[in-house]
């Protein structure tokens, strides 16, 4: 194949689905990895209908062996492997005093563990293929600054920024770049759930919950998944060949560094 090959985790909906579609439009063969086969198959069917090269895979990023198997399967299917987007994650809305060992452990297994396993699997495959590659991780605006009720989620997204910087230094010798993207308030099923839960905790309506996150956006609109996909498209392209260890905010102007 002449196409470059990318694997996107959490590709069944929201930001992950938008990233997969954008990378397809950019000319990539795309593997979609998610926990619900029907969801990734639905995204795959859309790409196939547009004459794209696509592979739907089911699995859990918290399970290291399943991530490695997905990367290997992707490489076998398309004959190469160039980019991984470690997008999958969960976002519990838990006030600090309500955090339990179970909530903390599960969120870390998926958000932090899934990112580390993706980095490991991609790096192994790039070396096997004897070329460099790009690793792109999902952090968050909540990984740049604290947000009420997001202690657990935010802590994992801060961690992903650190993992990104560390891995970038370790893997640069193999011409592997590692960067992250940090979305703000994106119109996705996950964001809807977060806003609903925050509003419920405060005894307020859903619209109030969403406004708590949206009120400080300089551009005065919520992000669409496609906004984030555009940022990932850049990180996956040759234009970003000289960038590594960076975490790019794509939040409409909420946090300024």
TrEMBL record:
It comes from the Bacteria. The keyword GTP-binding does not apply. Belongs to the short-chain dehydrogenases/reductases (SDR) family. The keyword Transcription does not apply. The active site is at residue 153. GO terms for biological process: acetoin catabolic process; bile acid metabolic process; fatty acid biosynthetic process. Catalyzes the irreversible reduction of 2,3-butanediol to (S)-acetoin in the presence of NADH. Its EC number is 1.1.1.304. It holds the Pfam family adh_short. This is diacetyl reductase [(S)-acetoin forming]. NAD(+) binds at residues 13-15, 60-61, 87, 153, 157, 183-188. GO terms for molecular function: diacetyl reductase ((S)-acetoin forming) (NAD+) activity; quinone binding. Keywords: NAD, Oxidoreductase. It comes from Fructilactobacillus florum 8D. It catalyses: (S)-acetoin + NAD(+) = diacetyl + NADH + H(+).
């Amino acid at each position: 194949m002449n196409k470059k090959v990318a694997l996107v985790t959490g590709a069944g909906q929201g930001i992950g689905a938008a990233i997969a579609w954008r990378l397809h439009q950019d000319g990539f063969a795309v593997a979609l990895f998610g926990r619900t086969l029907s969801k990734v198959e639905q995204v795959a069917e859309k790409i196939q209908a547009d004459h794209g090269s696509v592979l739907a895979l089911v699995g859990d990023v918290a399970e290291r062996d399943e991530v490695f198997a997905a990367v290997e399967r992707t490489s076998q299917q398309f004959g190469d492997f160039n980019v991984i987007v470690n997008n999958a994650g969960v976002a519990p809305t838990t006030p600090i005093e309500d955090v339990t060992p179970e909530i903390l452990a599960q969120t870390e297994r998926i958000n932090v563990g899934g990112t580390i396993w993706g980095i490991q699997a991609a790096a192994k495959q790039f070396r096997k293929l004897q070329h460099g590659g790009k690793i792109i991780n999902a952090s968050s605006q909540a990984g740049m600054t604290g947000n009420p009720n997001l202690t657990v989620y935010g802590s994992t997204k801060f961690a992903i920024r650190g993992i990104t910087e560390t891995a970038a230094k370790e893997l640069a010798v193999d011409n592997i770049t590692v960067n992250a993207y940090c979305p703000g308030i994106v119109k996705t099923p996950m964001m809807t759930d977060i806003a609903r839960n925050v509003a419920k905790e405060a005894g307020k309506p859903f619209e109030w919950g969403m406004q708590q996150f949206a009120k400080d956006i300089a551009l005065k609109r919520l992000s669409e998944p496609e906004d984030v996909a555009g940022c990932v498209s850049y990180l996956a392209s040759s234009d970003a060949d000289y960038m590594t260890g960076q975490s790019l905010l794509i939040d409409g102007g909420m946090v300024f560094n």
